[in-house]
Write a structure and sequence with these properties.
With 72 residues, this protein is of the alpha+beta class. The chain is built from 2 helices and 5 strands. It starts with 5 loop residues before the first strand and ends with a strand.
C-alpha cells in the first residue's frame, strides 16, 4: 500500500522518516513528512533496513545504521 506514495525515506539509527507526495499524504491521512521512532534492538534495525531496501528499491533514501551508511 505505501510503496507508490513514498518519495524518499531516511533511516538514521532508530529514526525512520518517510516523505510522501501531497496527494498520497492526504489520502493516507499522514503528514507529508512522517517521522517515526523505532523502539527495537539494534539487530532488528539492521533487519528493518534490509527489508525497507528490498521493498522500496529505487526510492531515494539515506541510511546511517550500524553496518551500513548509504545515500542515494
Amino acid at each position: 500500500m505505501v510503496f507508490g506514495p513514498i518519495r524518499s525515506w531516511t533511516l538514521r539509527g532508530g529514526d525512520l522518516t518517510f516523505e510522501y507526495g501531497e496527494r498520497a499524504a492526504t489520502e493516507l491521512g499522514f503528514p507529508t513528512l512522517h517521522e517515526l521512532q523505532l523502539d527495537i534492538p539494534e539487530d532488528e534495525i539492521a533487519r528493518t533496513r534490509d527489508e525497507l531496501l528490498e521493498i522500496l528499491n529505487g526510492t531515494c533514501c539515506v541510511i546511517d545504521t550500524p553496518g551500513l551508511r548509504y545515500s542515494d
